[in-house]
Design a protein that fits this description.
The protein has two helices and six strands, in the order αββαββββ. It has about 120 residues and is α+β, with helices and mostly antiparallel strands. A six-stranded antiparallel sheet has the order 1-2-6-5-4-3. β1 and β2 form a beta hairpin. The model has no long low-confidence stretch (mean pLDDT about 80).
Length: about 120
């Protein structure tokens, strides 16, 4: 996580080949992304059966790990609940200009539950 945070401080500067090619343990996929406005980031996805206990454990593991990792360096934000049948939880950690998020999303139509870890780079406009 410290490597990602360090890279995010510079908005993952450099060419595509120099960006993190990490795959976090057990993740189904991890990738660097580019957003409009030239912000960059990194995200990983874990896919589970719908409302599997393992998804909740994974979300809790990352949330607790991020709390310990960032200690007093981060401002924590809790997202508001959504009003539809699928559930959604989000924890965001603002560490200077970098945002690290972990979310848990149930998708009933797909009968899947996902955990997402996302690191948004510091956009240097």
């Amino acid at each position: 996580m410290n490597t990602l945070l360090e890279q995010a401080q510079s908005n993952f500067a450099g060419d595509v080949g120099s960006l993190p090619q990490l795959r976090l343990d057990g993740a189904d996929s991890c990738a660097t992304f580019f957003s409009p406005g030239e912000s960059r980031g990194f995200h990983c996805v874990w896919e589970f059966s719908y409302r599997a206990a393992e998804a909740e454990k994974t979300f809790t593991y990352f949330d607790e790990t991020l709390q310990r990792c960032f200690a007093d360096r981060a401002r924590v934000e809790h997202d508001q609940p959504v009003n539809h049948p699928d559930s959604y939880r989000l924890q965001q950690y603002q560490v200077g200009p970098v945002t690290v998020s972990v979310s848990l999303k149930d998708k009933s139509a797909l009968q899947k539950t996902y955990v997402f870890l996302r690191v948004d780079g510091a956009n240097r406009d």
